[in-house]
Amino acid sequence: HTGSNERILGIYALLLFTKKRYSLTQLSQIFSCSKQTILRHIDQIAIRQEVELVQEIEGNQKYVHVKAPNKPANVTIDSDALEYLSLCRDIVAHLLPGEVRNELEKTVSLASFVLTPQGSPAPGTTHVAGTFTKGAIDYSPQQKTIATLLQSIRGKHWITCRYVSATKKQTHSMRVRPIKLVAYREGLYLLHNSMNEPAPHMMPVQRISGITLEDATFTKKDIPHDEVPGTFGVIAGKPFTAVAKVSSHAANYVSERTWSEDQKIRTFKDGSIKITFTTTSKPEVISWVLGFSGEIELLEPVELRDELKKRLHKMMKAYNR
What we know:
25% strand; four-stranded antiparallel sheet; five-stranded antiparallel sheet; elongated; alpha+beta; 9 helices
């Protein structure tokens, strides 16, 4: 029920803000009119100089999209948004290479200078947040690697990377689909999968010793719907259930966090709790229990409990010498 002017405005906005390519058939279905009418409206839009339209023919279909401008567009940001941007900067600063941190600092400072009236406090220039880390990693040597990873993730390009294992110190060559970068504790990981292993896996970025961006691309259907597993740990494996008894001293710390999406917590009168959660990583469960210095007792699985006993006996031998 729209007139010509409304359709022209709608087509203009759709092409400009989605930055997608549409066929005449798609546009005629969206705006409930004939392809000849769409073509006439496109010709009217093309006369304008604000945007440049690209019209292409593939098979028996004609497509149209907006050509990206050669110069960057003006970006509007207010002081509140700049404050939140600086908050994000301070929280993730330890995960960024030095040059990227410096560039981000310059960008925030420049934006603050432009947005701040004379005599007013500059938003974003005060560091109001921070991160305490245990064993932080310097990602400056991986700056080119991270840049290539971001390029491959955006363009959905296959990559071939050389990866140094943590224990064997051996280098392996892997061809993977990069899904996204994931921050976990003090580290930066690449979430990826491959042709032979479609389930997502985590790879520490600092252990990537080389990377090659391929021309070959993949599609969304090659990526699992649940990209980041909702289970405990980053080491991929067969999921299993873990049950632990947590003392009253550590109960608040454990219960206020999500260890797996399906976790269940039972509270006892003495303030202690029993937590049941799903995990894929036996080594990380053992490290998690040991990290609480006796405040957590692993109940299940039994074989992992026995493995924990062996670790404790080994530690006792070292301290009883």
